[in-house]
Design brief:
Helices cover about 50% and strands about 15% of the residues. It is of the alpha+beta class and about 230 residues long.
């Protein structure tokens, strides 16, 4: 027998098994919270930047400057001078080239070590200026402000991760709980409503048995009709 599905029936199913949904939601929320404590959080990331003044009028596009900055020659020189144990591709990912407008550009570097982030930014700026002279023949370029060690991370590793995971676990628990309840109900072929009897037997229901409880036995006018199961 196919069941007729409507919002009222779905609401009754969820209401009848609300305890199961709550249990599943509690389990997923607690599991998400415990996972946040157990899992290893990534370290905080710090950023330092160096500002460079371009005095030459021969530079028409900052995209050319960025290509020079990210050249393996510049990045390899920085790695060699600082003794970094990483590839040029990895260092390239840490560097951001920013056009401040006019003749000011900025080289920003992110790293888990705030001192190292400042060192990389300043060293990269120095080799960048040298490479501009070697490639473009532009020597009238200087550092306006060197990178300083930042005491404040760009973002904190534990930035509300516990609360965020618990909220996600709570939402997932509700969705999973409702899904399980509706799935179990779809497997239940028992008859619970008068309309289902009429559809199944093609007969009109002319009466029903009231649900006998202590309350409606004492107060018969307020007695509710029992749903057939």
């Amino acid at each position: 027998m196919q069941k007729e599905i409507n919002l009222k029936v779905l609401f009754e199913v969820i209401k009848r098994h609300i305890w199961l949904i709550l249990i599943i939601t509690c389990i997923t929320s607690i599991a998400s919270g415990l996972l946040s404590f157990i899992s290893e959080e990534p370290p905080a990331v710090y950023q330092s930047s160096t500002s460079i003044l371009l005095n030459s009028n021969e530079i028409n596009s900052t995209s050319t400057l960025e290509v020079i900055l990210r050249d393996p020659t510049v990045l390899g020189s920085v790695i060699g001078e600082l003794g970094l144990q990483q590839t040029t591709n990895k260092l390239n990912e840490q560097i951001t080239f920013i056009d401040e407008g006019g003749k000011i550009v900025k080289i920003a570097v992110r790293d888990t070590n705030p001192e190292l982030a400042a060192e990389i930014a300043n060293t990269t700026a120095s080799y960048f200026i040298k490479q501009m002279g070697n490639i473009l023949g532009i020597y009238d370029t200087r550092i306006v402000s060197e990178a300083l060690v930042s005491n404040f991370p760009v973002y904190a590793a534990e930035e509300s991760s516990l609360v965020k995971n618990i909220i996600l676990g709570f939402a997932a628990g509700i969705v999973i709980g409702i899904g399980i309840v509706l799935f179990l109900d779809s497997l239940d072929d028992s008859i619970r409503f008068e309309k289902e009897i009429e559809q199944f037997l093609d007969l009109q229901v002319i009466g029903s048995i009231s649900k006998m409880t202590k309350v409606n036995v004492k107060n018969k006018p307020g007695m509710r009709r029992k749903r057939l199961r």
